[in-house]
Write the structure tokens for this entry.
Amino acid sequence: MLIGILIPFLGTTIGASLVFLLKNKINPIIQKILLGFAAGVMIAASVWSLLMPSIDMASTQGKIAWLPAVIGFMIGVISLCLVNNFVDKIENKQKNNKNSNITDKIKSTSMLVIAVTLHNIPEGMAVGVAFAGLLSQNAGISLLEAFALSIGIAIQNIPEGAIISMPLLSEGKSKLKAFTSGTLSGIVEPIAAFITILLTNIVVPILPYLLSFAAGAMIHVVVSELIPEAQGGKKSNLVTIGVSIGFALMMLLDVALG
């Protein structure tokens, strides 16, 4: 079981390690494509990994299928708006005109880390629910199905680990620090899985809300941070291409791995 709940974390680590394949400074054109790719991945993950499972789970629990998805999604968006405003107030006290562009990039990456980390928590809970069902022996979940879910999430986590570490590298962080930050964004998954196994009866009823909450947080970051930053300057078509590739890849992984 321990191996099973650690597998998704391994996927994030693999994705974060891709930073070692890059040069110390990312070409602006490549950076645009990567920002677009990150946005596409997050949009697709919000729909197929979070909102649709939220609706399905709520329906299975006998609730109004769409209600937890809507409530959780809006709370997620509003929460990130409040976090964004809080970060802005702190930065306005610290930055001056000379380093405003640098601090704007740092804020964008910080919001990205927050969103992906929030997204990883309910995914870890989903793995925990699967293994809790396996342990209970009355939920109809087999060992193969529980591991299949872990492996599927791990594969989805590969691009997510990369979209954390790569922007950090472009900000001037060392490859090791960028890799570490990308990896740590996924450490919440096994922690959430373990807690869920211990508190299954409490966590499972609110999981649809947590899934959609993470979706709202991710969409907020895409709309308020990634797309505006990527669209700066020329060659905006590259951003569209990056979004399309990221969305299609994540959609393929989510649907194929179910």
The chain is about 85% helix and 0% strand. The chain has a mean pLDDT of 80.
